[in-house]
Specification:
It contains 11 helices and 3 strands; from the N terminus they run H-H-H-E-H-H-E-E-H-H-H-H-H-H. It is mainly alpha-helical and about 250 residues long. The protein starts with a helix and ends in a 6-residue tail after the last helix.
C-alpha cells in the first residue's frame, strides 16, 4: 500500500510538468546542448559531448569509420578537439582504433552487456544500501526531483531525456553513498552500457517500468532501509538483464 501511494504521488506531480517539455519531445539536440549551453566548456569537452551524443543515439551507427576532418565539419569544431575526444571515447569503450582504417564505432555486444550488468549487480546494490544509510534530506530531495522529471519523460519521443535522467539518478545515488572509487567505477560501467539502454528503452512499457522501479529505490533510501534499497536496486538491474537477454537485434 505504501509503495502504491508513493507511485501515485510521483505520477500526480509528474502530470503537472508538461509545460516544461512542450510539444514534440526531445531529439539528439538535447544531448548535444550540454556541449553548447556552457560557454566555459573546453573545445575538447564540447567535441566529446557532441560526438558521444550521436554515437549513443546511434545517429552515428555502430561500425562507422570516423574521419577527424569529416567529424570536425559535422560538429563545427577543429580537428584537435575531435582527436582528443576520440581518445576519451576509446577509453569509454565506444570506439576502437583500427590500423590503417581509423577510428571505428564499436558494436553493441550482448556478452559485454551481460558482464557489465553482472558487475553492476555486485556493486550498485551495495552502493544503494550505503546511500540509504548516508543520504541527507537534500539528497532525498534531489532524487525526488529527478523522479518528477522522469515521470514526465515516458512518451514515445522522450527516450533521450529519460536516458539522461536515468544516468543522473544512478549518479546521484553513487555520490550520496560517499565512496568516490565506487562512484567512478560505476559511472564507467553505465557509460559503456548506455547505448543498449537507449535501444531497449524505445519501448514505452519499459520506460514506465524504469520510473516505477526508481520510485521503489527512492522510497527505500528515504526511510533509511538499507536492505530494501539493495533489493529494489537488484530488481531494477535484474530487469535490465532480462531486457538484454530478450534483445536479439542489437545494432552492430
Amino acid at each position: 500500500m505504501q509503495s502504491t501511494c508513493w507511485r501515485l504521488f510521483i505520477w500526480t506531480w509528474a502530470a503537472q510538468l508538461p509545460n516544461l517539455w512542450p510539444g514534440q519531445g526531445v531529439d539528439v539536440a538535447m544531448l548535444e546542448a550540454q556541449a553548447n549551453d556552457d560557454a566555459f566548456l573546453s573545445l575538447q569537452e564540447q567535441a566529446y559531448r557532441a560526438i558521444r551524443a550521436r554515437i549513443v543515439t546511434c545517429r552515428i551507427p555502430p561500425g562507422s569509420i570516423l574521419n577527424e576532418g569529416q567529424v570536425a565539419s559535422m560538429i563545427g569544431l577543429g580537428r584537435t578537439p575531435v582527436h582528443q575526444a576520440f581518445d576519451r571515447l576509446r577509453l569509454e569503450g565506444l570506439v576502437t582504433v583500427q590500423p590503417r582504417r581509423g577510428v571505428m564505432v564499436r558494436g553493441i555486444e550482448l556478452g559485454e552487456m551481460l558482464e557489465i550488468i553482472e558487475a553492476r549487480l555486485v556493486n550498485e546494490c551495495h552502493v544503494a544500501g550505503l546511500a540509504a544509510m548516508r543520504a541527507t534530506p537534500a539528497d532525498i530531495a534531489a532524487l525526488e526531483e529527478n523522479l518528477l522529471r522522469s515521470g514526465g519523460a515516458t512518451g514515445v519521443k522522450d527516450t533521450e531525456r529519460l536516458m539522461l535522467l536515468e544516468q543522473e539518478f544512478h549518479g546521484l545515488i553513487a555520490d550520496m553513498a560517499g565512496n568516490e572509487v565506487l562512484a567512478t567505477f560505476l559511472a564507467n560501467l553505465r557509460d559503456r552500457a548506455i547505448r543498449f539502454w537507449y535501444v531497449a528503452s524505445g519501448r514505452e512499457p519499459h520506460r514506465q517500468l524504469v520510473v516505477a522501479q526508481h520510485a521503489d529505490i527512492v522510497q527505500a533510501i528515504a526511510r533509511a532501509d538499507r536492505a530494501g534499497a539493495e533489493a529494489a536496486m537488484a530488481r531494477h538491474l535484474e530487469d535490465l538483464r532480462q531486457s538484454v537477454l530478450r534483445e536479439r537485434d542489437l545494432p552492430g
